[in-house]
Amino acid sequence: xxxxxxxxxxxxxxxxxxxxxxxxxxxxxxxxxxxxxxxxxxxxxxxxxxxxxxxxxxxxxxxxxxxxxxxxxxxxxxxxxxxxxxxxxxxxxxxxxxxxxxxxxxxxxxxxxxxxxxxxxxxxxxxxxxxxxxxxxxxxxxxxxxxxxxxxxxxxxxxxxxxxxxxxxxxxxxxxxxxxxxxxxxxxxxxxxxxxxxxxxxxxxxxxxxxxxxxxxxxxxxxxxxxxxxxxxxxxxxxxxxxxxxxxxxxxxxxxxxxxxxxxxxxxxxxxxxxxxxxxxxxxxxxxxxxxxxxxxxxxxxxxxxxxxxxxxxxxxxxxxxxxxxxxxxxxxxxxxxxxxxxxxxxxxxxxxxxxxxxxxxxxxxxxxxxxxxxxxxxxxxxxxxxxxxxxxxxxxxxxxxxxxxxxxxxxxxxxxxxxxxxxxxxxxxxxxxxxxxxxxxxxxxxxxxxxxxxxxxxxxxxxxxxxxxxxxxxxxxxxxxxxxxxxxxxxxxxxxxxxxxxxxxxxxxxxxxxxxxxxxxxxxxxxxxxxxxxxxxxxxxxxxxxxxxxxxxxxxxxxxxxxxxxxxxxxxxxxxxxx
Amino acid sequence: xxxxxxxxxxxxxxxxxxxxxxxxxxxxxxxxxxxxxxxxxxxxxxxxxxxxxxxxxxxxxxxxxxxxxxxxxxxxxxxxxxxxxxxxxxxxxxxxxxxxxxxxxxxxxxxxxxxxxxxxxxxxxxxxxxxxxxxxxxxxxxxxxxxxxxxxxxxxxxxxxxxxxxxxxxx
Lengths: 580, 171
Ligand SMILES: Cc1ncc(C[n+]2csc(CCOP(=O)(O)OP(=O)(O)O)c2C)c(N)n1
Ligand SMILES: [Mg+2]
What we know:
The complex is a heterodimer. Helices cover 36% and strands 17% of the residues of chain A. By secondary structure, chain A is α/β, with parallel strands linked by helices. At the A-B interface, helix 22 of A face helix 1 and helix 2 of B.
């Protein structure tokens, strides 16, 4: 049956048909018709954030923790520009989002109308695709394709800009699903010859490493279990990027820990000495490779990725395999068949030697709480609750990646590629909505948390029991650490001055606030945080000048890690200073 | 510390795309955003219903960068296919130029004589000037312009090249 409906109605109807549960948004002039269409519609729950950046990050947290696309609705001009950081974040970390932005009426476009911004132009290079819809008759098909593009292939944000007159004008809406264009068809499956070559390389390797990334998470929970099965067949040790944590269980004897700039000694040494690296859904990011010409120099490299453009981008590989991680892992398992696991005794013994360095063991300085200890206790006391952890950006994020352990995918939400301070709180809110029964904790820094602190109100409004655990070192610790290592401890503008009283701030928003000042308060306070049936801020005062190690300084090789206890020069040459 | 520049070989790419609003900005912007070079770019729609356009881009870079350019273009949703003519082998490249020359007496006669050699056609003539229309491979046009420079070159317009593989089959 066909009915004549307004563009706004068609939009809402199309979202319902896509199975959308939540829309994260903020109203304004250019989306009023859509807000009116949402009014009283019980099928979609609109979550009113306090800032559009919060909407985008909340949608990211929802998407990352549920595997479903997150939906954002914001007005034109400042609404759209405020959302850009979250859109760029989702683009870098391959998070499926559909962002609806209002636009001035078609006749006003280009006239510098009130709240007009060139949203399509601004988001062109931080979306997987974007659309300006000029006719309500095209809305249903556009939305359908937008969800397809956002979720299939390498996921990412897709933006639909809808002028106000297109929201008001009417068109026919059919009950039937729109006719889909065939133009977007990512390659899912690998060729049989590629699989055979990969199996042969794995079978003859003496020192293999599985290097996994966010692609394994994006490929769905099935990919994580297939990864575990493949590992059991071939026996290779596993490391992961920041984005891939949880795909392989952290208590597995073959788990090496995270690799890269703040990775473990054993993970980085194993990468450096490996004769075969099987990269699964990771992209050889500069935070992972360190100095490129010294990266895994003795290895043959296989790269499995759904995005052809990620292959051979920075590191040339020997065997590129374009395909979906889960599908290719399944193909590898089938092709491996009944082969015995290769004998890796010698390789494992070398790895054991590197493990013995115990590179995450940190020295205790003075009476203050060590930030690493705070994370360890948080992990130990919440472990049986199977929590979802989000983070902000900085040292606390790296300590969380190192000292919190993950056993399943979709439990770890962090801003990897863009490194966006202010991500964690809204992401936790989105995750809590998608997982109402879960314990959701944002591990935060005192500086980052202030970047989207306004979202405390969102959690209050929707009675979301999210927890914010602030690792408060009174510094932008990661900036301070780099200044200590590179600029002879000239701490230019990295001190967190004039901090609010986070306990009172919590209370002002109707949250519970807890302060931890001494180590002997740590466990009881964390227990109290978990026990409280509502949102809590924990302000945990930690050692102010602790550093996060191991660390591969910029421009250095994997073998040039700084470890706890090493003396540091406090300066770097210009080449190293110029690297990000 | 000094900034390093990268050299590389010239490649001609043809890109078939959905003819939708913003597609040219998207492609040109991809080159700027990722630091790739554009030496020339042409675009026009090539189907009866105006839904598909063909873009020809001449770029240069080291082999790994050229490979990245192709992969990055290929993953844009409106892009149907990307062909590297240089890599495919024998192909035809053509460009059209309009060249305005002014002068009197000997120079004028010589310009006309050279135009004949190059099969350039005068498409506008006054007593003091010509506009020549010339098509050919880019280096032929370069040579013609170089010669005209000595004879009173006023203005040059070039389309940038279009290209196609040789032989019976399409790319
Ligand atoms: C939006 C944004 N601005 C600036 C930065 C650069 N930056 C990275 S870490 C950091 C300091 C973070 O401080 P805090 O949140 O206290 O975390 P800590 O490192 O102390 O754990 C800064 C400023 C960033 N990542 N994101
Ligand atoms: Mg801090």
